[in-house]
Write a structure and sequence with these properties.
It is built from 4 helices and 8 strands; from the N terminus they run ααββαβββββαβ. The chain has 189 residues and is α+β, with helices and mostly antiparallel strands. The protein has a single domain, classed as endopeptidase domain like (from Nostoc punctiforme) (endopeptidase fold (from Nostoc punctiforme), Alpha-Beta Complex). Strands 3-8-4-5-6-7 form a 6-stranded antiparallel beta sheet. Strand 6 and strand 7 form a beta hairpin. The protein is globular.
Length: 189
């Protein structure tokens, strides 16, 4: 029984950390969870490669926006109950049969990193947890717009907005910014 509880606990620890208004849980995955291994996005045999099939970035964005207003629920990927940040990402991608990691920290080494200025819709934006001094990924969203270096992303937050919402990359999130990663090869064109 203790082993089962430990496994459940560890899976919850690596899920998204709560946003600033939720003081209940602020956990971070240990550094040993993530390996710093460079990966090429074209290497389809690599376990970190994500196959997007025929799905387009616009299809993903359009579907993600239909979930706006869904409530926040820690460790959940169930739209009837709510989403945490990675649960939202998982649910949206899985809708198109695209397999992605379940926890935000496990996106750390997913190929391939791009600059903020080159970010396009359906790229993923990664942030630290609520403690920006701990540089472990703990929150994430899907970029929906990048016009004149003004990025907007959709994510599930337990912060003031609470739930699936669209947020600009403001000073608060800039302080927590880790990187942008490209999932769709079409965005390279």
């Amino acid at each position: 029984m203790r082993a089962v509880i430990a496994i459940i606990f560890l899976s919850l620890v690596v899920a998204c950390t709560h946003e600033p208004d939720d003081k209940k849980i602020k956990q971070h995955a240990p550094d040993s969870v993530v390996k710093n291994v460079p990966v090429k996005s074209s290497d389809t045999s690599d376990p970190l490669y994500i196959n997007t099939g025929a799905t387009t970035p616009q299809q993903l964005i359009t579907y993600a926006q239909t979930l706006a207003g869904a409530p926040y629920l820690y460790a959940s990927s169930n739209p009837a109950k709510g989403f945490d940040c990675s649960g939202f990402i998982t649910y949206v991608f899985n809708h198109f049969h695209i397999v992605v990691p379940r926890s935000s920290v496990n996106f750390t080494n997913v190929p391939h990193e791009i600059s903020e200025t080159n970010a396009k819709p359906a790229d993923l934006i990664l942030f630290t947890g609520t403690d920006s001094t701990v540089r472990t990924v703990g929150h994430m969203g899907i970029i929906i717009q990048n016009l004149k270096d003004s990025i907007f992303f959709i994510h599930s937050t337990s912060g003031k907005a609470n739930g699936v919402t669209i947020t600009p990359l403001n000073d608060y999130y800039k302080g927590r910014f880790v990187k942008v990663i490209r999932i769709f090869p079409q965005n390279d064109l």
